[in-house]
Amino acid sequence: MRNSLRNTLDILNTKLANNGKFAAIDQAVISLSNFSASLLLTSLVSPTELGTYVLGFLAIYLVRAVQNGLIIQPLNTFGAGKSEEAFKAYFSAAALHQLILALLSAAGAAILGWVLTHLGNDTLGPTVFALWFSFFSWQTQEFLRRAFYTRGEVGKAVWVSLVGNFVRILIILGLSQRVEITGLTGLNAIGWGGVFGTVIGLWLAKTYFTTKWQDPFQVWLENWRFGRWILGASLADWMVVDMYPILMAGMVSFAATGVYQTLQNLVAPIHVLLRAMDTFVTPILAKSFDQDGIAKLQRNFRLIYVAVGIPVLGLLVLVLIFTPQLLFLLKGDTYLPYANGIYLMALFYFFLYVNRPLQMVFRAVRQGKQVFVANILAMVSMFSAGIWLIGRWGVYGAIAGQALNAVIISLFLGFAWINYVRRAKSNVSSV
Question: Using an 8 Å Cβ cutoff, are 301 and 285 in contact?
Fold first, then answer.
C-alpha cells in the first residue's frame, strides 16, 4: 500500500503530470476571463453594444480557425518531436509565417472596416475596422502560447494567459470607472491583452529563436500539405459550432438563443476539459507516433478516453440529476420549462467527447483529410437536417441538430481510424 502511494506521488510529480496541471490552470484562466469579460460587458453596455462585442468575438474565433490550420496544428505536430536545434530552425521560420498572417488579417480588417464605414454602415464598419488591433496582437500571443505546449513548457503558457487576460479585464474595469464604455471597448481590451501577452511570451521564448532558419518556403510547403485539411476542418468546425446560435436567433428568437446558452452553460466545464486536452495532448501524441509508432500511439489513445471519460461522464450524470435545481439557481423559474433540453445537450456533449480524441489522433499522424471530410459532412447536415430541426422544434431542434453533427463526426472518424490502424499494422508486418 505504501509503495503504491509512493508510486502515485512519483507519477504526479513527473514533468508530464505537472504540464497537465498547468494546462488545466491555463484553460481555467482563459475560460474564466472570457466569462468575466462577457459578464462585465453585459452589465455595463446596451444590448446593441453587447451584440457588437459578440460579433467581433466570433470574428476573432474565425481568424483563430485559419491560424489553427495554417500555423498552430502544423507547429504542434511537426515541432513536438524535433531536437532542440531542429525545432529552433523550424520555429523561427514558422514565426515569420505567423507574422505575415497576422499582418494580412489585420490589414484586411482595417480595409474592409474603412470601406464599410465610407459606404454608410456606421455600426458594422467601425467594428470591423477596430478588429485589426485584436487580430494582430491576439494571434501573436496565441502562437507563442501554443509553442510552449509543443515543447512541453506549459508553465510558460500560463504566464502568457495570466498577463494577457489580467490586462484585458483590468482595462474594461478601469475604463468603466472613467468613461461610458462600448462593445468596442471589449474588443480593444482583447487587443491590449494580446500586446502584453506577446511581450511576456517573447521574453519567455527567447531561446526558441535562431538566425539559422529552416527554409521558410520549405516549411510552408510542409505545413500546407498537412495543414490545408486542418484549415478546412477548422473553418467547417467554426461554422458548425458558431452558426447554430446565429441560425436560432434568426429563425426563432434571441430569447431562444438565451435558452440554448443557459443549458449549454450547465455542461460548459466539459468544453474547458476537451479544449485543454486538445491543446496539451496533441503534441504528446505526435511525439509518441514519431518515436514509437502506431502501437504506442494506440495505447496512449485508449488512456485518453479513460482519463477524460471519468470526469466527463461524471459531470453529465450530475447535471442530468440536478438540472432543475441548477436552472433555478441561475435564473429562477425562467428556464425551468426547458429543463428537458438538457438530455439532448448531454447527448451532444457525450459524442463531442467521443470525437475530439479521434480528431486529435488523426492530426498527430498527419492525416488531416479525414477530419476535414468529417466536419464537411457535419456542415452539410447543419444546413439541411439542422435547419429543418430548428424550424420544427426550435431550441430542442437546434440542440438535436448539434447532437446529430457530433454523431456523424464520431461515426465517420471512428470507422476511418479503424481502417487507418489496420493499414498501418499491415504495412509494418509486411516490412
Answer: yes
